[in-house]
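User: Run a structure prediction on this.
Assistant: Running it now.
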Amino acid sequence: MGLTELAVIALVAVLVFGPDRIPELAKQAGQMVKKGRTMANAARDELREELGPEYADLNLRDLNPKTFVRKQIAEAMAADEEEKRTAPAGAERLPDGHVPPFDPEST
């Protein structure tokens, strides 16, 4: 939300509720946000406790499908780079587009 949207919401709130009730409503909104945050933290802690110690460092953002896929791809690319660095001395990689040799008797 930008500054203009917040200004429009504030103007509508003043027109609908009046300037006298705005501080009370802001206090109630703050309490609701605090209660929601407390509930979310409690749910996260309960989930971590139920999953066990191997998921103690679980970040709920990691469960987002986009983040999960991005993390898996990054790990696969890092493993591929590590494999390239630790390849045996005599091993050669085929250039892109070349087909590896095929032996019909071995299959």
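The CA atoms of residues 94 and 101 lie 10 Å apart.
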